[in-house]
Amino acid sequence: MNSLEQLKKFTKVVADTGDFESIKQFKPLDSTTNPSLIYAAAQDIKYSHLVEQALSVAKSYSTLRNEQLEHALDVLAVNFGLEILKIVPGRVSTEVDARLSFDTVKTIEKAHKLIDLYAQAGIDKERILIKIAATREGIRAAEVLEKEGIHTNLTLLFSLVQAIACARAGVQLISPFVGRILDWYKKDRGVSHIDATEDPGVLSVAAIFNYYKKFGYKTEIMGASFRNKEEIIELAGCDLLTISPNLLAELENSSLEISPRLDGQMAQQMEIDEIPTDEISFRWLMNEDAMATEKLAEGIRKFSVDLVKLEQFIAEKM
After folding, report:
1. Sign of the C-alpha dihedral, residues 72, 133, 294, 246?
2. Pair 199, 183: CB distance under 8 Å
3. Which residues are part of the catalytic machinery?
4. Residue pLDDT, tens place only, 130-167
5. Domains of the chain, with CATH numbers?
6. Strand (E) or helix (H) holding 153
7. pLDDT tens for each residue of 255-300
8. What is the spatial distance between Cα 52 and Cα 264, in angstroms, rounded to a whole number?
């Protein structure tokens, strides 16, 4: 077995891409997208029909240009999701506008709209994860949505306190960003390389995994944003890992032996103190974690920039 086949024995593999051909090639169970991936894919002539369909629907939705544009973006995100669901047997994550990251009410409204668009296409909400930034406000929105039976994927997650708050809110799945954590620490330490066994991103996901298993939380953990295959190998045994096509290819072409590095039964025997997640504790612990605070803010800004690029791309075609 190649390394990818071995990994699939211990961990659910998710494709981190908007490219359908890559999804067909690597046969993941689930798939996840974001504005950056959709923007890149939407410019490919192969997917121009999805853009044109979104524009057509938006024109009949409203006579106001700003409402047409917003609706076109929502329909386009769902169009990509629908195509992905024809390929994967499981779920697709569809992202709420990052500019709503600090607005609980509007995040909930956007989630309802995306779920309605999927429902109109005949897709059950059990196959959809609404992707929301793991701000305090985003976590509160996710808690409401989960109680309504709408499942969520909390993204831009960089700290243990974010993860615990998500679990206590009943979130279906979290996406801790391994590679972005590594990026911050390499810059902070002034080094060009950190071994995967000491990688702060890997260690962060391991800490979340152990905490969840110790205290019996059911929220799924999906490691994301990998910089190299060694990070992935060190997290074998994690519930899910979302991996870009180039790293999936590296694993497929590798014969390295993979065994589980994370073990839920061992985690239950560990001595781990519970951490409070009330609002004051949450905000203080985030404030004390410079990496998590900076990367969360940066991640929201970057997703917003790519969303604006996608908006401009669609607006030019309207």
Report:
1. negative
2. no
3. 131
4. 999 999 999 999 999 999 999 999 999 999 999 999 99
5. 3-317 (3.20.20.70)
6. strand 152-157
7. 999 999 999 999 999 999 999 999 999 999 999 999 999 999 999 9
8. 47
